[in-house]
Write a structure and sequence with these properties.
With 314 residues, this protein is of the alpha/beta class. 46% of the residues lie in helices and 13% in strands. It contains twelve helices and eight strands. Strands 1-2-3-4-5-6-7-8 form an eight-stranded parallel barrel, surrounded by nine helices. Helix 3 crosses helix 4 and helix 11 packs antiparallel against helix 12 (282-304). It is globular. It binds glyceraldehyde-3-phosphate (G3H), 1,3-dihydroxyacetonephosphate and zinc ion. Residues 24, 83-84, 182-183, 213-216, 256-259 line the site of 1,3-dihydroxyacetonephosphate. The site of glyceraldehyde-3-phosphate has 12 residues, from helix 3 and strand 3.
């Protein structure tokens, strides 16, 4: 079993100018697609579970699936992270369930309360060997169970607050709102990230790992397939791949990706349904979806620079 927390991973990522991909899992096929890519590319891995994923699949099933991935890949360091924990009780539950990392997202609360909520989670998690990710600023986009704001440019993380936040809260990494948002509709016009904000925060917190949420690129390949085969996502737009690469070379050590997994799976399922209307064996459409996820994740690992870095993160 090589379940680890993020400490060594982030130290290596920070010092060597790459980022680790944090992929959301909701079922077996998604997990297998990700893990096969990771094994083929020998990359470190963060698998994450949202409250929505837990409600959909149950923690026992998800943990069992993840445990198999961990057991079958002893050479790969794997972190399991709670994505967007909303309160202390949720975080405590995931720590007690054996997660090695939890995110407390109290970013919608006023600054002092965000510190207080985060501190409480840190005090429970740290003695149990679990690391804590916190969030400053607010991301855009509204997804099920993850409430964001609509104008991302107005709610960026404030570089003048980060030192006080990290010192007082004791968090191990910090998600910084820098212009991205959750979901498939991130930008209405030209996509733009606040690299100046990322750099200012990095300058104030030397050596400290930052996290970028909402980092899917909404790949044209899958968007086009979805639209071609009866879907309706004409205005979907993600973070350009060059921007992901650039952020990964900066202090961003963890890059969160969910939407691109969903779109890869959906695109392939739609394609099979459209091209083979008589097909009703789930393996015949989930299988191509899983394969598309694998190829897409392999591509991401090169973009993030973490391909081949598994051994140094152990
Ligand atoms: O950050 C949000 C993730 O994409 C999880 O979304 O709450 O619908 O599982 P979810
Ligand atoms: P995307 O919606 O861009 O994939 O972001 C996922 C995320 O940030 C999960 O926490
Ligand atoms: Zn997120």
């Amino acid at each position: 079993m090589t379940l680890v927390n993020t400490k060594k991973m982030f130290e290596m990522a920070y010092n060597n100018g790459y980022a680790v991909g944090a992929f959301n899992v909701n079922n077996m096929e998604i997990t297998q697609g990700i893990v096969t890519a990771i094994a083929e590319e020998q990359a470190p891995l963060i698998l994450q579970v949202s409250r929505g994923a837990r409600a959909y699949a149950s923690i026992s099933y998800l943990k069992a699936i993840i445990n198999v991935a961990v057991e079958e890949n002893p050479d790969i360091p794997i972190v399991i992270n709670l994505d967007h924990g909303d309160n202390f009780e949720t975080c405590k539950q995931f720590v007690d369930d054996g997660f090695t990392s939890v995110m407390i997202d109290a970013s919608a609360h006023p600054f002092e309360e965000n510190i207080k909520f985060t501190r409480k989670v840190v005090e429970y998690a740290h003695p149990r060997g679990v690391v804590v990710e916190a969030e400053l600023g607010q991301l855009g986009g509204i997804e099920e169970d993850v409430v964001g704001v609509n104008d991302v440019s107005k709610n960026l993380a404030d570089p003048d607050h980060v030192v006080e936040f990290v010192e007082k809260s004791g968090c191990d990494s910090l998600a910084v709102a820098c212009g991205t948002s959750h979901g498939a509709y991130k930008f209405k016009s030209e996509p733009k990230l606040a690299f100046d904000v990322i750099q200012k925060i990095a300058d104030k917190l030397p050596g400290f790992p930052l996290v970028m949420h909402g980092s899917s690129s909404v790949l044209a390949e899958f968007k086009d397939l979805i639209n071609k085969y009866g879907g309706d996502m004409p205005n979907a737009m993600g973070v350009p791949e060059e921007a992901i690469s650039k952020a990964a070379k900066m202090a961003i050590c963890k890059v969160n990706i969910d939407t691109d997994l969903r779109m890869a799976l959906t695109a392939k399922i739609r394609q099979v349904f459209a091209e083979k209307p008589s097909e009703f064996d789930p393996r015949k459409y989930l299988g191509p979806g899983r394969e598309a996820i694998k190829e897409m994740v392999k591509h991401k690992l090169h973009l993030l620079g973490c391909a081949g870095k598994a051994a140094e993160c152990m």
